Amino acid sequence: MITYDRLYLAGSWAVPSDPELLDIRSPHDQAVIGRAAQARPADIDRAVAAARTAFDEGPWPRTAPAERIAVIRRLNALREAEAERIADLISAENGSARWFTGAGQPGLTRQAEAYLRAAEGFGWEETIESAAVRAVVRREPVGVVAAVIPWNSPFSAAMAKIVPALLAGNTVVLKVSPENSLSMGLLAELLERTGLPEGVISVLPADRETSEHLVSHPDVDKIAFTGSTRAGRRIAAIAGEQLKRVSLELGGKSAAIILPDADIEQAVQGLKFASLLNNGESCIAQTRVLAPRGRYEEVVTALKELVESLKVGDPADPDTFIGPMIRRDQQQRVRDYIELGIKEGARLVTGGPQVPPGLESGNYVTPTVFADVDNSLRIAREEIFGPVLVVIAYDDEDDAVRIADDSEYGLSGGVWSADETHALEVAARLRTGTVTVNGAPISFDGPFGGHKASGIGREYGAAGLAQYTEYKSVTLPASGA
Prior knowledge:
Low-confidence stretches: none
Radius of gyration: 23 Å
CATH architecture of the largest domain: 3-Layer(aba) Sandwich
Number of domains: 2
Helix content: 25-40%
CATH class of the largest domain: Alpha Beta
CATH superfamily of the largest domain: Aldehyde Dehydrogenase, Chain A, domain 1
Shape: globular
Strand order of the largest sheet: 15-16-17-14-13-18-19
Strand content: 15-25%
Largest sheet: 7 strands, mixed
């Protein structure tokens, strides 16, 4: 049992305005695994006020980039030392399989190191000179950042925002999901040990109503949000009304295009991870599988065999590939979509709305594959956020690209081919922010983000760091004038 009866507010552990603690329950069996304080609007006000003072009057925004880089290196080292504990906590809270949370720890290191490389080579100050004038161009911090993250991959989402925000010299109020109160409590402990000045960062678990209070706060200068497209639209409206800076990483319904020359076995084994990682609770999951008509049944059969081979069960079991959904309502949402797919007339290849036998006490769903799916069906258009795949047939390459782009989303996607050069040509035609070829991992040095309803702005590397800066130009007479 882990208990956090205080909030990490402005760099220290503070008594919350509401003393009631939230029970954190295991998605596996509903057992209470911890209790934690939750922030209310009054706590948000205290955190934002402290962040405002720390930005306007404190040392952090005026610290040299090299010193800020050293602090983030220390944070990264502290996190690496707790990697096993972090992985265990996220599995316990989220139901994410332990293989996934463990494999994610080196990824967190690579993510942070990419930001650090970007900061070391960043143009914090540059001089542009012409015959008439000299311009000193500075990249300065935006101000107070409200970082709001979802529950599905909490450490990755948190570090993707607080690392560049802090490297740029901002102060941060990080709003995390109640479900992640334990792992984010550990993050707060690590931040406490980095030596950040008072007021620079707060880590506050809170509900959606309190989150809206944060993003609407007049002393917040920028909102960095990851979550659903519906919530993103609301946040964009608030930001537009108040002219706040905003970056949004939103939903997805990504397509994996299997070209006719692809190795089907290799492609399907790759989709095991690209489509079903983190129990399917992933915005980048490639859940629309586009197969050529001439090899359609071959792809469907291979996916059926793959999905039926995956162990569903206790996320702490090292042999488990798919664990439970995070909450009962999320479990029911996924099961409702499966029932909808059947009603819509798609062919149920494997799975179904039933709970896997022996797992009724948890938030489990049966991994499901639908075939004979038209891209107009709701199961092909709406983000299900669970282990549900749809297989869509295409006639030729132009048809495949058309189907892939026939979506309100544009976050990720994949192309599978024996010809890498040709796969790159197909990838270039897709209107989406990230495309992987033959299962390659996402680059943390390159920009990550979405087109269309999948968001605004980019994360990772230099592009992600730039999201937390403002330009300032100072002009002087030209040299020798």
